[in-house]
Amino acid sequence: MEQVVIIGGGPAGYTAALYAARANLSPVVLTGSTIGGQLSLTSEIENFPGFPESLGGMDLMDRMRQQAERFGAVMKYEEVTSVDFDPGAHRIRTDQGEYTAKTVVISTGSSPRLLDVPGEDTFFGRGVSTCATCDGAFYRDRKVAVVGGGDSAMEEGLFLTRFASQVWIIHRRHELRASRIMQERALEHPKITFLWGSVVDEVLGEAAGVTGVRVRELETDRVDDLDAEGLFIAIGHTPNTALFEGKLDVDEQGYILTDRRQHTSVPGVFAGGDVQDHVYRQAVTAAGTGCAAAMEAEKYIAENGG
Ligand code: NAP
């Protein structure tokens, strides 16, 4: 029987692991395949306190993992396939085995949302992407488009200017949701052109990949084909909670409901990070709630005959 099993290896999971390991609980972290979580796909982190010079997302995640391992956390690169919550002995099955745990910390994060337009599926991975950091370098001296008006879209757009000759940002409204500093950087960039009040109707392409993006202006219904060879979708996320359907209380968008101390609706099961937060969704808030979840798990074990 494990004391603490942590599902998910992003900033919330690794911070929970660090705190649980330092509390002598020998946590097991089931990281799944996206090791380091979404942050490991982010190019540059400028707002994690303590790193005034900024650092790469992968680098930050490596450091968090090493720090947790230094105190005895065990990383298992296993994918969780099902869970059965039973206070006292929660069961977690993975693609490689089964664990029983007194407490569970869920930190499975969230995944990028897609547009659901013709061509998106067909060309996913062949011109359609949700990760400029991963795929941006393929677009040297080529034209690309980004969809979205939040910080992610600005970040993707700005990152793509390193390679692409032209970046369109397509946003459905006339006002951005992104933070002021990111807006200013994107609005001032000579390679970026904004297409306001517009949506993507279709991704156009041939066998080799994307050849264009069909954009419609909402007010006029005017349709234009951009000769973009890449489309980066940055329209937000959905929580990774399919595993927990019907087993924990979630809100109408599927985010796990926690109280102010990271308790879920099941005793001994805690949650931290983006899987339970659709408001802040920052590396530092994920780390904070991961820390709180581990401290609550420690308290729960002590109070329930650890
Ligand atoms: P977000 O803030 O929720 O923005 C999503 C954007 O996509 C919005 O502009 C939204 O339009 C648009 N959108 C949603 N569904 C759409 C659809 N079906 N078709 C077209 N457009 C659609 O998400 P995010 O940009 O991923 O940011 C999430 C959080 O992470 C935020 O708290 C953000 O501050 C943070 N973040 C921070 C940084 C940074 O600090 N460097 C970087 C990335 C993310 P509307 O505006 O019309 O709703």
Indicate the radius of gyration in whole angstroms: 21 Å
- Let me know the number of strands: 19
Largest sheet: 7 strands, mixed
| Top-tier CATH class of the largest domain | Alpha Beta
Q: Count of DSSP helices?
A: 6
What can you see in these coordinates?
With 306 residues, this protein is α/β, with parallel strands linked by helices. It has 2 domains: 2-111 and 237-303, FAD/NAD(P)-binding domain; 114-233, FAD/NAD(P)-binding domain (3-Layer(bba) Sandwich). Helix content is 23%, strand content 28%. It is built from 6 helices and 19 strands. It has helices at 11-22, 57-70, 132-135, 151-160, 180-188, 283-303, and strands spanning 2-7, 28-30, 44-45, 55-56, 74-76, 80-84, 90-94, 98-106, 110-112, 128-129, 143-147, 166-170, 192-195, 198-206, 209-217, 223-226, 230-233, 237-239, 269-271. Strands 1, 2, 5, 6, 7, 8 and 19 form a 7-stranded mixed β-sheet that branches. Helix 1 (11-22) packs parallel to helix 2 (57-70) and helix 1 (11-22) packs parallel to helix 6 (283-303). The radius of gyration is 21 Å and the shape is elongated. NADP nicotinamide-adenine-dinucleotide phosphate (NAP) is lined by residues 47, 115, 147-153, 155, 172-173, 177, 179, 199, 234-236, 281.
